[in-house]
């Protein structure tokens, strides 16, 4: 698999990927490779210490200095800016996603569920809310940045070492140990052009005791963070950023890219702030403020569009247009965090050490989005729920067709924005012993980790109450009384007055319309592990290293459904719930054989027993050949697996939303069906799922031609079989696995009506093959006496192929395209990501810059898509700019000044040149720009701070 950085001088060691650690166990003491003259190091991916910092596997190491140079305020921001991260990562800024409030990394674009995150070599409990309701992952936000010693990224498959979840690689965050002294740090950041998105952070780190003299050490770290929101409405000068109305950029008013409120076609209209209603006879929609509405029996001058918005109009069919996304949505949500990390170490005897680690992380995030429409269809495990029939009753006083019920498309601004408040509490306790017994070094520990999440939502509409308050038929009233005590308490004949008459509503009406929607989640991991290593004989190249170990782990997860979604009673909110537990046992072994001075071989093997899916056997072999000391060739072969999560094979289900075209209606001539539109997707767990299997290969070299020059190039391939996916939305539609609402049909003969839901399940689809290369270069320059030194580096990840092959033989290559839109955010799969860095240091001053490059994307769902471009301008041409999303480059600048031995002043400027990201009309993770280009949407960002050492 992949290679990655060059690290401190080249990466040369053997197999790093070799086995053990077993699932997240910390690298352990052992073996003295050749004599004690050189200091041995522990490298992620192996339990065998060695004298070199490079192995057969590619490992990227980010030191504390690298972290400081990046200018990033959190581990999540740092990792998601790296070239190795790709599609499927979860940004904290995605406040409206299933996993809002958390952040995850996706190595190789294979998803957060296939990327294992460790802290000090051991697991953490996954975040309680699965991404897309399916992908369980570790929240990077829980890692205290100031306590980080370094981050090691193992870029090839590591299931032989760590077990399940490591198909794409491992991120191992090593926290500080044996720290002495006290350091306080404060910083403040905000955008320079908008004075929002504030980021206040305060940290204090205290350590005391010396292991060598006092026989103990205690480290305590506390971090507080308060991040303010940043809103689209404050960025009207950033062109299309945050705007859903893209008519000024060539898009049509007759689609969702014109904002909200457009009347799109016969029997099809968006939600308007003053209400669009359907003529019961012709099925044409008219705006309530239109005094020339065909067939109106009452006129409403107060409903004139101009009374609600100053937004530019121009819908040729007469809708009232507003840009709801710009008005209400956010670039980033509010988030307040508290993070504590403590570690205590006691040297009991010269050969025995006890240690304990404790993490406590609390987060509160608040995100908001547009007010709800009244007609959004949803689904739940019982099936689809179409809300297309919502109507103003015949006697509703705001009905222009008074005397006859008329369908309504209304954007409920009077109810207010939809707001989600998420509280997350993460705890992790590790207690262990490590030492030496005879020829063996050992490490054993008990781990308990837990995450609790509560999610409270306001602003969503209760379906039964909404239907009854708009159209109080006998059936609607009975349903509302059965489901809502708040509705039952209202006087008989109560209506929800809309738009210009919303001021007539009582607080009790809104309490019935929009009750608080909440749910809770909890995940737990309990683990006991043991590992030991020793030298075992000697070959021409040095001592043979052997490591063995085992572990037992219990995992449990539970996500309760949001109240009301279990019956489909919350308009526009998908259902997500799952429950499951399992036991996992594992045995593993690893061997390092320095056959000659120039040839090093390694091998690892692991056997896992999962109580719910059976056994797994994962071997790995590696080799490193160093014909001359400046040059080494390395490679690995490995197999891996990932067991299905409880969200995929447990109890529960998922009803969410995706974007898709409707080929059936499009072929009939329903123009609006030819453009991607939101559809509900109902996905059911599958207890017959098999684990994913993988085969990974890496081959590359490391070359250090000069003392300050280092170059590495690694080619990687990962083939994942039995891949667990939701059935592709487009494939499910093509197979007829849909539910339609015939009442939404147009006058075109044979029109079956719009899709209300796509029916799918989790399946073992055929395979995904990822091929690519990692280039890593570093060069140092001595600028002469008094001029300091300069270091430049470059990291480039290129994807040759990202091929998904379905069971029917169809193939979809996503490399360099906007697919796969069945994965998080529909951010696409860039073929190229590059990080270029330069750092100048002289005496007490350091100035660093990083250039971040994201390659261009074809705005297609996959290469050579016969459907062509995924988006079109109003004139029918491919959008944007010939069906291409331009590349995006930002420059970050950071500085550090050591004022004296105790005081350090630092600062960063993110997006130095205030670049605006390219237009992206397809993604749903951000509004009209790609989530990968978040810093361009936010704008230039300044952060300054001071650190004081006592």
Task: Tell me what you see in this structure.
Residues 1-41 have low confidence and may be disordered. By secondary structure, the protein is mostly beta strands. α5 (463-470) runs antiparallel to α6. It has a 26-stranded mixed β-sheet that branches. A hairpin with a 4-residue loop joins β44 and β45 (903-910). The chain is globular, with a radius of gyration of 29 Å.
Summarize the structure.
With 950 residues, this protein is mostly beta strands.
**Proportion in helices:** under 10%
Largest sheet properties: 26 strands, mixed
Average of pLDDT: 88
Percent strand? 35-45%
Write the layout of secondary structure elements.
Layout (H helix, E strand, L loop, with lengths): L12 E2 L40 E2 L2 E5 H7 L4 H6 L34 E5 L28 E7 L4 H4 L6 E7 L5 E11 L7 E10 L7 E12 L2 E2 L31 E3 L2 E2 L6 E3 L6 E3 L36 H5 L1 E3 L1 E16 L2 E18 L8 E3 L2 E3 L5 E2 L13 E4 L8 E20 L2 E19 L4 H8 L3 H10 L1 H4 L18 H7 L3 E23 L2 E18 L16 E18 L5 E12 L3 E15 L2 E12 L3 H4 L1 E10 L2 H6 L8 E8 L7 E12 L5 E18 L2 H6 L3 E4 L12 E29 L6 E17 L5 E3 L18 E11 L2 E10 L2 E2 L12 E2 L5 E2 L4 E2 L2 E11 L4 E8 L23 H5 L2 E9 L1
